[in-house]
Amino acid sequence: MMPTTSATRVTLRAEDIGKAFMSGKVRTPVLDGLSLSVRAGELTLISGPSGCGKSTLLAILSGLQRVDTGRVFALDQRLDDLDPRALERFRLLHTGFVFQGFNLFPALTAREQVELPLHYLGVPRREARERAARSLEEVGLAHRMALRPAELSGGEKQRVAIARALSKEPALLFADEPTSALDAASGQIVIDMLHRIARVHGTTVLCVSHDPRLIGHADRVLSMEDGRILNDRRETTPGVPTEGLVP
Ligand SMILES: Nc1ncnc2c1ncn2[C@@H]1O[C@H](COP(=O)(O)OP(=O)(O)OP(=O)(O)O)[C@@H](O)[C@H]1O
Question: Per its UniProt entry, which superkingdom is the organism in (predicted)?
Answer without folding.
Answer: Bacteria
